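User: Hey, quick favor. My workstation is busy. Could you predict this chain's structure for me?
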Amino acid sequence: MSRGLNKVMIIGHLGRDPEMRYTPSGRPVVTFSVAVSRSWNSSSGERRSETEWFKVVAWGNLAEICKKFLSKGQQVYVEGRLQTRRWEDKEGQQRTTVELVANEMTMLSDRRDKDQSNDNAPEETPPAIEEDEFPF
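Assistant: No problem, here it is.
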């Protein structure tokens, strides 16, 4: 029996603060974007670079941790799988998006907690989370 593999690992910077929503059943889901840049030398020796943007979706406990600890500009490692989602918009047009459904996240730069009022308070470290359960 043949098996497939759908595993993605990225390191990049958050393009915006995570946005939290809840499913009708109350399950948390967070979305955010991550910019991953690469650079290379062209055949003429010119330095080139490009940035690829990834839409990231996290569910459950991982969603809550991402919302609490991540903010725009932070460097982050995200691991998960790619998922293609299709829907029809308000005008009846078919839309498609590709998302990285996260099951692991590690902060690689300092935490920037917007809600932390005491700068001298000890910094809380988020627990390591691997999200096993997917809603589909």
